[in-house]
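FORM 7B: Structural annotation worksheet

SECTION A. Query
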Amino acid sequence: MFLGEYQHSLDTKARITIPARFREQLGEKFVATKGLDNCVFLYPLVEWQAIEEKLRSLPLTRADVRSFVRFFFSGASELEFDKQGRTVLSVNLREYAGIDRDVTVIGVGNRIEIWSVDKWAEYTDKAGSSFEEIAEKMVDLGI
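SECTION B. Predicted structure
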């Protein structure tokens, strides 16, 4: 399980260092794709394959399903780490997430999210102000 929040920066070659604890769980190869809320999702291959199976089982006759599947898969790429534990995010993923240099890397259970520092601060400010309300709604859902 991925947990925690870390601050990192891209180097001059657009490489990012992923925390060692996360690298161990991601494995040698993993998948990066456009995440929700304008961040980048990283998945271990096993998780990615499970998501792929679920998405494949959805009805392609629905326009919203086709849209989401296109969005999710078109931004995806298989990545690996170099010997220093760095990886390169594609230009399209960096542009999508607004990442230019400083990033926040967070663990979110079955995935890692990479955010631009500014967008993460904006998101946490907004979500933090309604955290209790969100928690109440989750209780109503039985969580």
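SECTION C. Observations
Residues 51 and 85 are 25 Å apart (CA to CA). The longest strand covers residues 2-9.

SECTION D. Sign-off
Analyst initials: ____
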